[in-house]
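Hey there, shall we discuss this one?
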Amino acid sequence: MFARTNLVALLFLALACALGAVVGCGERPVAVVNNQRVTETEFMSRLKEVFGKQVLVEMIDRQIIEDAFDKAGLELAEEEIGAELQKMQADFPSRDAFIQYLDSRGITAQELRDKLELNMKVEMLATKDIPVTDEKLKAYYQQHKARYDKPLRVTLRELVTISKKHAEEAGAALQQEGASFSSVVSQYSIVPSRQYGGQRRETAIKDLYPAELREAARTTPVGEVVGPIETDGGWYIILIEDRKAAEKATFESAKPQVTKEYKRANAPPMDKLLKQLREQAVVKIVIPEFQELSELYAGPQKLPEFGEESEQPESLVPETAPSAAPGPSAPATEEPETPQPTESEGD
């Protein structure tokens, strides 16, 4: 979905080509197939035909949301966006792993940030009028109390081999003077985490996998190495980097999170909010081939008074009423895809 940003740029280029604004644009080939040229004009025309409608809807909806946010007097600090990005990154063993994941999905860090910002603004618009009292929040907290408790957690590095022999060789290498866990991991480990020195993200010990690691993760002193440990997924050597005690939440400590989740749970559906914002906006579709989108932004039609002519702009009423627009999805309101790291084998 984030690749749409690049698609928008291509569509702008297509328009520039059509207007002759780009020197040499149009007949220049983008590919040659069996000595037959595929020109930029053909390529851009096809892009516009296939994706133009959805990209235009996305651009219009983004502007509608931005305008509604400003009109409501809401503010979103850069620090709040950064905090949400940090939460996403925390699911990965390192920032490099996070960036590598984005690259694999064709997403830039800036595209992710922009998408996240827009979705946060949509949520703020949807929840701004939700009434909140301590009584309601406490009731919600009691219903979902367990979700706010923090279990015993561990951060560790792993070295995984396919055989006990290789694990013992790796263990011996770790005993060498000056050896680091990361360097030995890069030499012996067979799982993807070897790219990050065996680093795994913080995990609740009760959820740690393979299960054979849980006892060692619970009892091994921080900073020490333990293993080899035999599991169904291979032989593990682990370094305990950090362990955090379980924490019981209180209403006061969890109140900010409770408030956010309570308001989100009681907010109107995002598609309903977007429909309302579209109806309130004044949108004029200028490109003839996309005129059917006018229905999407027309809003409720006011019946004319007796003897009064309709004042609806002519451009919004095509001579031949098109079939209803296929209800384009609301890309601006979908939750950002929270990136999930690729678990190592046996994770």
Summary: DSSP finds twelve helices and six strands in the chain. The longest strand covers residues 234-244.
